[in-house]
Amino acid sequence: MRSDNLGIDFLSVFGLNPVELIGLAAELGCRNISIGLVPFPINPHGYSHWSLREDEALRRDLVAATREKGVSLALGEVFLVRPGVDLRDAAADLDLMRELGVRRVNVLSIDPDLERSFDQLALFAEMSDSRGLQTTLEFGPRLAVSTLQAALAAVRHVGRPSFRLLIDTMHLVRSGGSASDLAALDPGLIGYMQLCDVPLVSRFEEYMDEARFERLAPGKGELPLLDLVRASPPDVVFGLEIPMLASAKAGLGPRERLAPCVEAARRLLDEADAAPTAR
Hints:
Elements: E1 6-8, H1 18-27, E2 32-36, H2 56-69, E3 72-81, H3 91-100, E4 104-109, H4 114-130, E5 134-138, H5 148-158, E6 163-168, H6 169-174, H7 179-183, E7 190-195, H8 207-213, H9 225-230, E8 238-240, H10 245-249, H11 254-274
Parallel strand pairs: 1-2, 1-8, 2-3, 3-4, 4-5, 5-6, 6-7, 7-8
Helix pairs in contact: 1-2
């Protein structure tokens, strides 16, 4: 059942302590979360600052919570390819991800020099591989790797089975991708799905403002989510990346914001399981 693979992603909770995020995921029946080593910088609820880099006790508590609650750290967020930065500098953060029990780490590029980006992605994938971590590459508008076709070129350049694609439903469709494009892929190339809904045409002047702050629950927008889910591997993790900053500023806590999203996603995934596969 695809709904067994639901998760809540780091961006959706605006700086909530990761141990509390695990508790929230368990309460909502989700078996996965994504984490960052430090909180997202937008903090409408005034949460206390935390750092998994600096706080050894928090790391111990996080590992204990995953075991107690049965929630997996499915994705480590987010590693950036940037001009003038060598990803060898991320070695210590990768070591921490491995220590915490993270299964895969996500990378994206904002370096417009694609040759340099691809070489850095290959270096990063080698570093992750040596630590037993999978790597996913996120692509989308306003990123250096902006389309599925460009992401596939990066996969060919890297040439490692552990280097896969992160498919964000908003980014895929807004960059011109479709369910038929997903169905045509080797299922093993899809390492993680980020699930949300949005209108087909953005309501925002700045694309990344919508992507980082205001997405919608499944069924509240216009994306062909059922087709996208049916074209995806049934065992992939579906992380809910649904930040809703306006609702958070209006006083809705993470449970109130995300419980309806989880319910809508579960209905969607169950419908996909009941329908003939698109593959």
